[in-house]
Amino acid sequence: MIPKSFDYLRPSTLQEAVQMLDRYEESKVLAGGQSLIALMKLRLAAPKYIVDITRIPGLSYVKEERGKLVIGALTTHDTVENSPLIRQKCPILSEAASRIGDQQIRNRGTIAGTLCHADPSADVPTAFLALDGEVVALSPSGERVIKASEFFVDFFTTALNPNEVVREVRVPVFSPRTGSAYIKHARREGDFAIAAVAAIVTLDAKGVCKSASIALGSAGPTPLRAVEVEKALVGKKLTDDVIVAASELADRGISPPSDIHGSAEYRAEMAKVFTKRALRLAVSRIGG
Fold first, then answer.
1. Does CATH number 3.10.580.10 belong to domain 7-52?
2. Mean pLDDT, the chain, as a whole number?
3. How many CA atoms lie within 13 A of 268 on its CB side?
4. Vertex 14: Cα angle to 11 and 20 (nearest 5)
5. What's the fold here for domain 62-172?
6. How far is CA 53 from CA 18, 21, 56, 136, 164, in A?
C-alpha cells in the first residue's frame, strides 16, 4: 500500500522540531522510521505532517553522568548493542537491543523511537522498565523527566504530549554484585516476543538479595513489573528453590493478549517459565 499524502517538515534543531509539533496538529516525529513508515504504508497511521528529526545534530551519543548512562534520542539499536560503556555498565540494555529484528533494522531504529512507539512486545521497553529508566522530553514550556513507570500508558501510547519530543534516555549504572538477563520467546529470531522477561538482581556481601527488578513483555497493554516476584526474592538467598517458587508468581496481575501466536493462558504460563530462566541466568552472571 502507499501512505496517504502528508507534508514533510525537516527541522534543523530540536527546538524547531518542538515548535513544529506545537503548531501542526496530527503530526508525527520521524526518527528511525522502522515502525512509523510500516504503519503508514498499511494506513494504520495517517499523520498530516511528518517532522523528520534525523538530521538534527547532536542527538546520538552514549555517556556516563552522575551514576547514569545518558543516551541520545537518535542513538541506534546497533550502537546500544555494541557500546562498550553500555555493555560494561548496563549490560541488559545491550542484550535487549541485540534481540531487535535484524541487523538492518538495528542500523536504522533508535532507542527513543522504540520507546515512543510503546509496543508492549518490543524488547527495549521491557528492559527500560526493569531498569527504572527515564526519558527527558522537550516541549515549548521546557524540559521534563518522565520515569519509566509513568511513561507507558496503554497499547502504543505514552505519557508524551503531542508537542513533546524525547531528547535523551537515562538508565542507571549497575551497582556491584548485580546480575541481569533479558530473554524472550518468539517464533523466529528477531520477531516480536510472545513472552519476554527482563531480570535484574543485586546481592549483598552475604549473598542475600538486596533488590530485584523483573519486567514482563507481551503480558498486557504495556510492559509490566512482576511486583509479586520481586517481593518473593528480596531478603532471601537466591537458591534454585527460591527462584522457582518466586517465578510461579509471574502471572499475578498480568493480562496477556490472545492471538495467532499464543493464547492468553499460554503467554501467562510462558511468563512463569521465562522468569525462572531469566533469574537463573541473571544470578549466574553476578561476579564476586
1. no
2. 96
3. 12
4. 55
5. 3.30.465
6. 10, 11, 5, 16, 13
